[in-house]
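Bug report

Summary: structure tokens for Acyl-CoA carboxylase subunit beta differ between web form and batch submission.
Environment: batch mode, default settings.
Steps: 1) Submit the sequence below via batch. 2) Compare with the web form result.

Sequence submitted:
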Amino acid sequence: MTILDDLTVTHAAPDLRRAADELRRLKEEVSRGPDPEATRRQHAKNKLTAHERLELLFDPDTFTEIEPLRRHRAVGFGLEDRKPHGDGVVIGWGLVHGRTVFAYAHDFRVFAGALGEAHAAKVHKVMDLAEAAGAPLVSLNDGAGARIQEGVTALAGYGGIFRRNVAASGVIPQISVMLGPCAGGAAYSPALTDFVFMVRETAQMFITGPDVVQAVTGEKITHNGLGGADVHATASGVCHFAYDDEAECLEDVRFLLSLLPSNNREMPPPVPGDDSPDRRTDALADLVPADPGRSYDIRGVIEEIVDDGEYFEVHEGWARNVVCALARLDGHPVGIVANQPASLAGVLDIHASEKAARFVSTCDAFNIPLVTLVDVPGFLPGVDQEHNGIIRHGAKLLYAYCNATVPRISLVLRKAYGGAYIVMDSRSIGADLSFAWPTNEIAVMGAEGAANVIFRREIAASDDPEALRAQRIQEYKSELMHPYYAAERGLVDDVIEPGETRRVLIRSLAMLRAKKAEVPARKHGNVPT
């Protein structure tokens, strides 16, 4: 070692240690936020800080933050005197259940989480990294929209986010978690993602706020009444999941990620379990009434079929006449679409069609097989439905199923009438396998309606119309609606006992796991809107 080397070691080491200590103090200061009072105000609103939220989202001690020291370069309106590190957003990556996930979290304590040029550049960076790495992206939203002081530059930042949302759509899972306000153009980014979570009371989403609504329309409404979690979970369908607190919400975000693949080139991760694939499901015979006119809750059927009775319902509060859920069968994730006889008798209407279509498309994008449980009397009739476009909205579900290349299995539990039977993933639109219980009724319409149409004149001319109507109804049932009619014509692959349902589904999905579907060469399809 030369004298110069010795001097370098002797004199540089203390400086490096001091620099490291200063860096550590600086990063701790950045993490704490601008001042203790800002943190206190955040907690007073029952809201966590950005770093506290990230700690709940990721496995312990796995989050790696990048660009924590970034500052904005804007001047004017006092911005040049306020240049906090981080610029109101925390970005980075970590592990969720041992798998890499990227995230960005607005820090409401800095500029109320508003987006400016530097803030947007950080979000763009983490979005690009997530797509390049083929890993999910989670956004923790708690911001006041565009930073007004930066003008059109802030708006351009949102444009960059939207463009990346679309580019990553169907490539990596994108999850938006609404933990505070999200107004104006900012609301379109969550709307472009795959799943939206919201926390009641603290989170709101709207394009124009209550003050503007009142000024323009005269309507007085609160922030939550206009765009709160329950509004979007039950009325608009914007929100997939709503929660009372942030901890419960972020725990379910972690659970959802465990059911999804990291990207569209991977299969969803299987998890070994103790629920036997050959377990019989004899309880289904008691859960589902044989009388097609009697109601029941389809969620009991799902619970009996899936592993350990555990499923994750999507859009639980919206369009309740159809149930969409993620679950596991023999440890493998599966998407379930089911008519819900307990709500509107399980008919398909505008909202149910939209809800199911979006779910089918999401499962197809991320290689999640689909199981469809059919008990549908038809589409909801009415002037309102027709005038609001049930034809084009119903076509969305038809399009989604026809376009899906993942393994698809349909099971007719009881009735399946008319166009709704076709739309609910019948063999004719590409289901790989179709099964039915021995109580199934597959027909153009119910026997009563069919008899009234076919034998209308004969019944009207009869001396005993009611007796003849009953006779013709029974004849129609015997000829065209017996449980084996569709099976005899190859439109149902097999009629199975309810007790065999789980075993048949698991064996069928295992066979279809290696399915390869050829997609026609095209730029993209033209989805009904």
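Above is the batch result. After comparison, the two runs are identical; trailing whitespace caused the diff. DSSP finds 21 helices and 17 strands in the chain. The mean pLDDT is 92.
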